[in-house]
Amino acid sequence: MFLLKSIPKVDKFIENDKFNDLALSLVVSITQEVLQDLRENILKNKVESFTEDELVQTVLQKYDELTKPSLQKLINATGVIVHTNLGRSLIDAKTFDKVKEIVTSYNNLEYDLVKGKRGERYSHISDVICRLLGCEDVLIVNNNASAVFLILNTFVKKKEVIVSRGELVEIGGSFRIPDVMKHSGAKLVEVGATNKTHLYDYEDAITENTSMLMKVHKSNYSIEGFSSEVGFKELVKLAKEKNLIDYYDMGSGHLVDLPYGLDQYEPSVLKCMQENPSLLSFSGDKLLGSVQAGIIVGKKEHIAKLKKNQLLRMLRVDKLTLALLEENITSVLLNKIDDIPTLKMLFTSIEELRENALYMQEKIKDISESEIIETKTVIGGGTTPNRTIPSIALSIKIKNYKQNKMEKLFREKKIIGRIQDDKFLLDFRAIQKSEIAQIINIVKEIADV
């Protein structure tokens, strides 16, 4: 009973000078929780004594934990460039600085400076994308899943969409094409077999209620061996013959020629646009190397119908997304690949990666065991499934720490590496040059040098 009576009153407790510069309402809320926990632990005989200073420190610690940003900067040493868990594509600092003045000021997001009246937010980016891709119009939504849903809801609600069984994908977060179709109001018609689909499978399935022929990128997996699929060119031709809409959910899609022969595994937006399709959609934060967005391109008449769908109000993007996306698309148009970190990392030569690894190895040779290893990695984000690209990694061992201990120690310092063949590796494919000095210092910290 004595301990319970010793618990301070909230109004008196929060008068402590250490709370003077803090948000009072938050201090009160945390204090109430801390004192309630203390009361319960006393009743459970888990606490034999306490001091007010200890309670103050507990409140301050919880206050710091709550007010500290949850999102934190990390160093990606996994080798995976488009790492979904680590934020996918990076935004170039100079590019961000370009748009900072715009997004921190009032701007003409929906204002026509020539006509002096309300304008359309998508007009700011349509010209540069149409110029790059040769499409009639463009629409931007908040991600490619939104693009798929909006397109199906607009053109296939209470109608049929034909898709190959080999393309009924499930991607991260249990996002399944059949479920999206169901919720959009579209009726799915599956054709072909899992491993083989022919053009006549689509043709035989067309009825008077069919609205669309749809092709879906096989994100995160590939079908090989005794298999075949219908190319988008053939699908576009059939759709035109039958007066239907053709639509390719490209997932990632890319706007430049990829290295290491990856073009044959990942659809090119530029090449697909040569088929004069009805609609395409792809992600902004994968091989485009920009912000999260769903980019829909195609026929002006179809884009116009999408813009009239009331769902668009819930799926539209803001000024920051549009401003950054416009900068990145312009960089692609001008062939300034180095302005897009994702593409810069992808095109970095093995020789340069090795030089970076040798430099770090030399700097830490006296405090750790290390070995330069030729390895392979993946681009990530569901792109080029089951295809690898060459990379260079540095295996690091400090003291007698096992690889799991090494991984944990580096993770605690905000460096995310990987374990391979019982070794802890720092893969240089996604490490920025500006981060190397920081990694060297962290190695020294871990080694207690």
UniProtKB/TrEMBL annotation:
GO molecular function, one term: L-seryl-tRNA(Sec) selenium transferase activity
Gene3D superfamilies the UniProt entry points to: 3.90.1150.180, Type I PLP-dependent aspartate aminotransferase-like (Major domain) (3.40.640.10)
Catalyzed reactions: L-seryl-tRNA(Sec) + selenophosphate + H(+) = L-selenocysteinyl-tRNA(Sec) + phosphate
Source domain of life: Bacteria
GO cellular component terms attached to this protein's record: cytoplasm
Cleaved signal peptide residues: none
Modified sites of kind N6-(pyridoxal phosphate)lysine: K286
Top EC class of this enzyme: transferase
Cofactor(s) needed: pyridoxal 5'-phosphate
GO biological process, one term: selenocysteine incorporation
Localization per record: Cytoplasm
Keyword terms: Cytoplasm, Protein biosynthesis, Pyridoxal phosphate, Selenium, Transferase
Cited InterPro entries: PyrdxlP-dep_Trfase (IPR015424), PyrdxlP-dep_Trfase_major (IPR015421), SelA-like (IPR018319), SelA_trans (IPR004534)
Pathway(s) annotated for this protein in UniProt: Aminoacyl-tRNA biosynthesis; selenocysteinyl-tRNA(Sec) biosynthesis; selenocysteinyl-tRNA(Sec) from L-seryl-tRNA(Sec) (bacterial route): step 1/1
EC number in record: 2.9.1.1
HAMAP family: SelA
Purpose: Converts seryl-tRNA(Sec) to selenocysteinyl-tRNA(Sec) required for selenoprotein biosynthesis.
Protein name in the entry: L-seryl-tRNA(Sec) selenium transferase
Natural source organism: Candidatus Sulfurimonas baltica
